[in-house]
C-alpha cells in the first residue's frame, strides 16, 4: 500500500472504531489514537519528503510517493496519489487541526459518538483531496468533505443553525456544479485520455479560447469555498453557527481547499486563461481582503468577527496566487498554513469562552482576564498573530505576500497591493478593540466571577496551537523551502 493512502485508511478505520465503540471513553480513545497516528504520519511525511527531494529534484519528479490505480477506465478515472511541497504542508496542517479539534471537543454533548463520526468523515475528505492528483477523485473527496458540514452545523451548531447549514450547503453545492462542468471541459478538450493533473499540464494542448470559457468555472467553483467576493456570504453564518471543532476544521482546513484547488487545477491546467483573466479576479480578491477586514470592525459577535477576518485572510491567499510570482505564491501557501493555525486557535478559544459565559456578544463581556487568565492570554496571543506581530506566523506570511506582489512592476498590480496592505491597519483596529473590550476593565456580569478557567484538555489543545503559530513565525525557513519546491513547477507552466 502506498504510504499516502494511510491518510484515507486511518480515518476509515477510525469510523469503524467509532461505530463499534459503546461508551464515551471508547469514543474518545478512538479519536485520540487515530488523530495521533495521523499527526505522526504527517510529521514523518515531512522528513521523508525532504530526504527524497534531496535526490529527486522537483524539475524531474514534481510529485513524490506517486501511484496510480485505474478505477473507471471508460473515462480514464484513476485513484492517483502523489505529493509535492504544497500538499505536504497542507496534510500537516490538517493533522494538527484534527488532533487539537479532538481535545477541543472533549466535553461535547449530546450524541458525542455521532458527532465524531461525521467529524472524521469530514477529515477523510480533506485528506483525500490533498493527496489525489486525479481531477475526478479530487472532486469526489471534495464532496465528501462538504456533505458532513450540513449535519455538523444543523445538529450540533448554535444560533440560527438550520439557516446557516442550508445556506452553506446550497452555496457550496452551487460551486460544485461549476466545478464538475469545468473538470469535464478540461478532460474532453485536453484529449479525453487522462484526468491526471500532472499529465494534462504536461500536454498543454487546450486551446486558449476554450481555457477562457472553463477557467471562470473552476476558479469560481473553488473560490466559493475560499470566500471569494461576492460568493463569501455563507462563510460568516456557517462559522458562527458551527460547533467549536467544526469551526476549527472549517476555517482552518476546509476553506484552504478553495485556494489549493484554484492554484492546482484552475491556474495550473488553464495557464493562458489565468494570465488573461487574472485581473478580473484580482479585483474581486482585493475587495475580499479589504471588505472582510472592514466588516469585522462592525461586528459584535466574537465568531462573526473571526469569520469576517477569515474572509479577509483567505481573500489574501487568492490575491497572492493571482500575482503569479514565486515569492507571492509561496506567501499564499504560507498564509494558508498560518491562517489555518491561528484561526483554529481563535475559534477554539471563542468556543471555550462561550461554553462558560453563554454569550459571544462583546458588549456583554468584560474583565475576563481576572476570571480566566489562561484563556485570556491565549486570546491575546491569537489576536497578535492575526494582526501580524513579528514572531508569529501571520507576520512572515503577510510580508512574503506583499513583497512578492510588489515585484510586479506595472501600476495595476502595485495599486492593488497597496490597497490590500490597508487591511493590516484595519485588522489591528478590530483585534485590539475586541481584546480591550472583553478581557480588560470591569467584570461585565457578577455571575462571571463564579466561572472557571480552562480544563486540562482545553489547555492542551490551546498550547499545541500556540506552539505551532509561534514555531512557524520564529522558524519559517523550512516551511518556505518545502512550499517553494511545489510552487516553482506550477509557476513554470503558468508563466511559460
UniProtKB/TrEMBL annotation:
It is a multi-pass membrane protein. It comes from the Bacteria. It is found in: Endomembrane system; Membrane. Residues 133-416 form the NADH:quinone oxidoreductase/Mrp antiporter transmembrane domain. It comes from Xylanibacter rodentium. The chain crosses the membrane at residues 6-22, 29-50, 77-103, 115-133, 139-156, 168-189, 213-232, 277-298, 305-324, 336-355, 367-392, 412-432. Pfam families: Proton_antipo_M (PF00361). This is NADH-quinone oxidoreductase subunit M. Keywords: Membrane, Transmembrane, Transmembrane helix.
Amino acid at each position: 500500500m502506498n504510504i499516502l493512502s494511510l491518510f484515507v485508511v486511518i480515518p476509515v478505520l477510525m469510523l469503524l472504531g467509532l461505530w463499534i465503540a459503546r461508551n464515551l471513553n471508547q469514543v474518545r480513545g478512538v479519536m485520540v489514537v487515530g488523530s495521533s497516528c495521523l499527526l505522526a504520519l504527517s510529521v514523518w511525511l515531512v522528513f521523508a519528503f525532504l530526504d527524497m527531494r534531496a535526490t529527486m529534484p522537483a524539475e524531474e519528479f514534481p510529485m513524490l510517493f506517486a501511484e496510480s490505480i485505474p478505477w473507471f477506465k471508460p473515462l480514464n478515472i484513476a485513484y492517483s496519489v502523489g505529493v509535492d511541497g504544497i500538499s505536504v504542508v497542507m496534510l500537516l496542517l490538517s493533522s494538527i487541526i484534527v488532533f487539537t479539534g479532538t481535545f477541543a471537543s472533549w466535553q461535547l454533548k449530546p450524541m458525542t459518538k455521532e458527532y465524531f463520526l461525521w467529524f472524521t468523515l469530514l477529515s477523510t475528505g480533506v485528506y483525500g483531496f490533498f493527496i489525489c492528483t486525479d481531477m475526478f477523485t479530487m472532486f469526489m473527496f471534495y464532496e465528501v468533505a462538504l456533505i458532513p458540514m450540513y449535519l455538523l452545523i444543523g445538529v450540533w451548531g448554535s444560533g440560527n443553525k438550520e439557516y446557516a447549514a442550508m445556506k452553506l450547503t446550497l452555496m457550496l453545492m452551487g460551486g460544485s456544479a461549476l466545478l464538475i462542468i469545468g473538470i469535464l471541459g478540461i478532460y474532453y478538450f485536453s484529449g479525453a485520455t487522462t484526468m491526471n493533473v500532472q499529465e494534462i499540464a504536461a500536454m498543454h494542448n487546450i486551446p486558449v479560447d476554450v481555457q477562457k470559457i472553463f477557467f471562470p468555472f473552476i476558479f469560481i467553483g473553488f473560490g466559493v469555498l475560499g470566500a471569494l467576493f461576492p460568493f463569501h456570504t455563507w462563510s460568516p453564518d456557517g462559522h458562527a453557527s458551527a460547533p467549536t471543532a467544526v469551526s476549527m476544521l472549517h476555517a482552518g482546513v476546509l476553506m484552504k481547499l478553495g485556494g489549493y484547488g484554484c492554484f492546482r487545477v484552475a491556474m495550473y491546467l488553464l495557464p493562458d486563461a489565468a494570465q488573461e483573466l487574472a485581473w478580473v479576479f484580482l479585483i474581486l480578491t482585493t475587495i475580499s481582503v479589504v471588505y472582510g477586514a472592514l466588516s469585522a470592525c462592525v461586528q459584535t459577535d466574537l465568531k462573526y468577527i473571526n469569520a469576517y477576518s477569515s474572509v479577509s485572510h483567505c481573500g489574501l491567499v487568492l490575491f497572492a496566487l493571482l500575482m503569479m510570482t514565486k515569492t507571492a505564491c509561496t506567501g499564499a501557501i504560507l498564509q494558508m498554513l498560518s491562517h489555518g493555525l491561528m484561526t483554529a486557535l481563535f475559534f477554539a478559544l471563542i468556543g471555550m469562552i462561550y461554553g462558560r459565559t453563554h454569550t459571544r456578544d462583546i458588549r456583554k463581556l468584560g474583565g475576563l482576564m481576572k476570571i480566566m487568565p489562561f484563556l485570556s492570554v491565549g486570546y491575546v496571543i491569537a489576536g497578535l498573530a492575526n494582526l501580524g506581530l513579528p514572531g508569529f506566523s501571520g507576520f512572515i506570511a503577510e510580508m512574503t505576500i506583499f513583497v512578492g506582489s510588489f515585484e510586479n512592476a506595472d501600476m495595476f498590480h502595485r495599486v492593488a497591493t497597496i490597497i490590500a496592505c490597508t487591511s493590516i491597519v484595519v485588522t489591528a483596529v478590530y483585534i485590539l478593540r475586541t481584546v480591550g473590550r472583553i478581557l480588560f476593565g470591569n467584570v461585565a456580569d457578577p455571575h462571571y466571577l463564579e466561572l472557571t478557567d480552562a480544563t486540562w484538555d482545553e489547555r492542551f489543545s490551546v498550547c499545541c496551537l500556540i506552539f505551532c503559530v509561534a514555531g512557524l513565525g520564529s522558524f519559517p525557513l523550512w516551511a518556505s523551502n518545502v512550499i517553494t519546491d511545489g510552487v516553482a513547477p506550477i509557476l513554470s507552466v503558468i508563466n511559460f
